[in-house]
Every structure is written in structure tokens, then in C-alpha cells.
Amino acid sequence: MTAIRYLNELNLPDICISPKLRALLTPVGLDPFERPEVTARYEYDQYGPNYGYVHMIMALTDEAETLSVDDFSEASDGVVSFSTPAVDDYGGLAGHQPSVSGHEYVVASHGDGSFYSYHLAEKLWMALGLSPRCVGGDDQRLIYDDLSLPEFGVAEGEVSSSYYFQASRNISWRMSNEYLRKYLWMQGKHGTRVFFYEAYIQETQDISDLLRDGGHYHTKPEDGWYELDIRRINEKTLMQIWAVVCAVTPELCAVQTAAGLTWPGIAGAVDHQRANALVEPTPIFLDDRFLERYEQNSFYQTTPFQTHGGWTCNPSYSGQWSFTDCRRVGRNLIQVRLRELYKPKPDREIVWAHAHVVPQEIVDQTDLSEEHIVAKVQRLLEALLNLADGLAWLTTDLGLGIPTCEELIGFSREELKAEHWLPYPNLSRLAQVAPISISEQKFLSRCKEIHELWQKIPNGILRRIVDQGGHDPKRYKSFGSLKLLQILTNTLERLNVNQETTANFGGDSRESEVINRNANLAPLFLTADLRNADAHSGGSVSETLTQLGFDMSQTNLGYGRALDFVFDRNIDAFIYIGTEIKALQVRSS
């Protein structure tokens, strides 16, 4: 039956049909993104005028039109198994099979009036290949995922509840419509709601007419799909309904498919067979926001790799599937051959890529040589590695120890050469998609990551180097790494201007080297100011960027250009320090 037919047969005034009751009487459509409720137990406003209660389970039934509430005692209990079986003899449990009056169920539920527990039916999760996980601490919930795709949250709901004068919490289990219908189709069954609902209702004239004889009204239709009871209790009107409603048919949802998609530069629709037959290179350009779905979920691997002078970004999942030959071009584009897109992977991943296709006319207007975010992070990394090499040499030459590059900056050249960025996830996080339209909040977060990337340089090593410069340690006793780096840079500038070597590192020290600001390091100080979004209010962000020399009119579309500018200025600052150390090293060797 349709929702209209169920409501018409119930024949109650609209004011008596709450949203919850209407939902219970409404069959589920074919939208694959809908998440129908498959088990529930609610109680609200227990002693108030808006009291309502409902329990519902979903059974798998053969016929949709021959269901009677008399055939389902579970309409009163609200669980698949109420209490525990009485077994007095050895082997007496053999043959016991929990069911909803002989029918299978979606959620296995057990209760005895005081304690209730819930799990997805074993047959269901095993047939669909789902994996459970439990979250929530004391208020635990079970979540079932399809890890083969992956698809997360296929089904989920509370694990348990208790009842002592009142319910400890409400229970609601929901499931993906696509997976639920797939299971029903596999079983050849309908999903039927078996429920009890009661609530105080407003006594309209129609209801008063029904209660004319003794303040009580009871009815059941000929086919018996519901039983309705209305009565006056303590000057209130209570409505109770026991019902079975065929809610989900064994009809599959429309499945996302890559067959039939059209692509720029390709005449007609493309399916797997046609894509695999393509011999000529057929470049497709994607907006790099295609990557966001994968970058923001730790289940996927999205580490960029530098190959053949360029950068690839191939999202993959746990050895199950992978994109291939996705190359970054321009600031925010990804170039991939159509044949590569259609290589084995779930169709929905190809559909996701298709949703981010950039038309050729837009590509033609794009500078494909513009530096992208990954290349900027690599340049920053190289500047920091060179700085670390310089600091390691300077520390050693001054007799202060023999630190390694990794000890100074947290990155190993050998590790990077062997494993690329894989051992350093902070690099991948910093290189995540940064569109022109990036928000101010995300821009500030990225500035914080830039600042934190080089903060591993130990203050102690910087302080010992500065101590060798002949300055009064009391003047910079409380300085952090950034100000110590500034003193070091000022000292290096003096030594290089005077063509000195490390032999005279502590000679002719000047007070100005401790207190003077170095304009070449200004970007590092201003980025430190930007690193904490909570520290800013009003126009402080724009003021800081303006001090850096950035034109704020470029933020009309977002803070992407501002992020590029901050990257470039920070890279220049670290290159400058490294160059000053290198100049001293050449003379001192």
C-alpha cells in the first residue's frame, strides 16, 4: 500500500497524525541516499501533555498485502526475542531459532522489560560483507561499514538501553537504503515495520464523536493490518496503534555506474570496454578538489609522489584499488588519461572524478605551468633541509656537537630519497588541496602548519650557536627559536659583510644584532602571528598580510592567493638564512 492508502484507511484527523506516526506509515522510496529506520524505541515527555512512545522492528515478509497485526506478537513486545527461553532438559535449546513470528529480521534485538540489546542480524552483515566497529564510550553505538569499497556507516544504532521508571536512552537503528534493498532483493522479501505507537492527542470533534459511547473507541480493519484504540484517561485522550506496514519492497536502488558517462573531447558515451580500447592519449582535466574526499579520510592513501619531473596524486584504498597516472598541472588541475580512469576501481569513484571534470575551454584559459601547492611544499622542504645542513655544519665547526639534519629539522634526506613523503604525513597534510576559494579559517590553519613545520629546530642548539657570537646571554635568555634565528642571521650578515670566517665568530659582536629586526625574516614573524586563528579578531588578518606586502583585494574570491604569498615569502626567508650560512662555510673551509 502507499502512504496515502495507509493514512486513508486509518481515517484519523491530520492533527492526530504526528510526524513520527506519519513516518511509520510511509513506505520508503528508491533514493539510494535515504537512510530508513529499521528498529526504534522512543519515549518522550513521559509525564507531560506531549507524551509519546513507539517501538518498531523490521521483519522480512513474503507478501505485502496479507499482513495482519494478529500474526505478530512482537508488535506488543518491540523486540525480536523477549525474555529468554526456558530450558529444563539437556539439549532443550536445539532447534531454537529467534524470529519475528517466523520471519527473519534486520536488527537482532532482545529485551525483558528492563534491559535491551541490539545488533545487526548476523545473516545480514555476513551476506553483505559488513564490518562492525563500536564508538561512543558509555553511550556506545555499533556502526557497520563495507570496507571493500569503502562505504562507511552502512548501518548504525545504539547497542543497548535499560528501563527503570524511564528509558535510559532512545534507540534508533538506520541503514543505507541501497544496502537494505540489496539484502531484501537477495532474500526475495519485503521489509515490514511491526510497531506499536501511543501518544496523547488533541480531542477534536471527530475524536469526540468516536468516544461518545463510554469514552472508549476500538477498531480493526477486515484485513487486520492495524488495531486502533482511543480512550480518555485522567482527562487526557490516549491513542494507541498496533500495526504492520510493508515499508520496503525488494526493488534495487539505481546503482551509480561509469557506463554511459560523456567526457570532454570524446564523442558519445563511454563505458569500460570503450575506455580500455583507447590507444591515443585522451587527457582529461579534473579540478583538484576531486582529491578532498580522499585527503580528509585516513582510510585512503593520498601521498603525492614526484616522478619524471612532475607530481602524481593517485588516491588508493588499502590495496583494493587505486587511481593511476593522475598528474598535477597548473595550480588546481589534475591531468589523467581516460583509459587510466576506467581501470579497475568501483564505478562510484569514476563517477566522483567525472563530477570534477573541467571543460576544455576553461583549461585553455589556465596557466598549466603555475606552481601548485605540492610543489610549494617541496620547495619549502628543500629550503629547510638546506638550512638544517647549514646549521649542522656550523654547529660542528664551532665544536658544539655533530647533529644530523633529522635531529635539527625532523626530516632525513636518506629517508626522503628512499620513501619520498610516506614517513612524513605532516608534509601531505600541508600539501592538501588549497583552492583559490579557500576560507580564511583554513588559510590560518595552513599558516599554523607552515610555522610548525620548522619548529623542531632545537632551541638549545640555536642558543649555543648564538652564545658563540659573543653576546650577553642575559639579553636573550627568554628568546624562542624565531628570535634566536634572527640573532644568528644578524651575526651571519656581519661576518659575511666583513668577509670573516667562523674563527672570528665571537669577535666584534654588537648589541644591535640582538635587538634589531631583520627584514628578511619578517615573513617568519608574521606567519607566527597568523598561526593561531583564535588569536585574531576584526581586521588583524588583513593587517598582518598587508604588512607582508600582500594586496588584500586578491582575497575577494578566497584566501588561496594569500596562501601562495605566505608560502613564497617563508621559502625566501629560509633560503636567505641558508645562503648566509653557505657563504660563511665557503670562506671557512
Describe this protein's structure.
This protein is α+β, with helices and mostly antiparallel strands. The chain folds into three domains: 3-87 and 94-248, no CATH class; 272-364, no CATH class; 373-588, no CATH class. 35% of the residues lie in helices and 21% in strands. The radius of gyration is 34 Å and the shape is elongated. The mean pLDDT is 93.
Question: What would the keywords be for this entry?
Answer:
21% strand, elongated, alpha+beta, single chain, 3 domains, 11-stranded antiparallel β-sheet
Q: Major beta sheet, specifics?
A: 11 strands, antiparallel
pLDDT below 50 for ≥5 consecutive residues: which ranges?
Answer: none
Number of strands: 24
Shape verdict: elongated
Mean pLDDT: 93
Beta-strand content estimate = 15-25%
Number of structural domains = 3
Number of helices: 22
Distance between the termini: 90 Å
Q: Helix/strand/pairing class, anyone?
A: alpha+beta
Rg (C-alpha, Å) = 34 Å
The level of helicity is 25-40%
How are the elements arranged and paired?
Blueprint: H1 3-10, H2 19-25, E1 37-44, E2 52-61, H3 74-77, E3 81-82, E4 104-105, E5 107-111, E6 115-120, H4 122-128, E7 131-135, E8 141-146, E9 151-158, E10 160-164, E11 166-167, E12 171-175, H5 177-187, E13 190-200, H6 205-210, E14 216-219, E15 226-233, E16 236-248, H7 272-277, E17 283-287, H8 292-295, E18 300-301, E19 305-307, E20 310-312, E21 316-317, E22 321-322, E23 327-329, E24 333-337, H9 338-341, H10 347-354, H11 360-364, H12 373-397, H13 405-409, H14 413-419, H15 425-430, H16 440-453, H17 459-467, H18 481-497, H19 512-515, H20 522-530, H21 540-548, H22 560-588
Parallel strand pairs: 3-5
Antiparallel strand pairs: 1-2, 1-12, 2-4, 2-13, 5-6, 6-10, 7-8, 8-9, 9-12, 10-11, 13-16, 14-15, 15-16, 17-24, 18-21, 19-20, 21-22, 23-24
Helix pairs in contact: 12-22, 16-20, 16-22, 17-18, 18-22, 20-21, 20-22
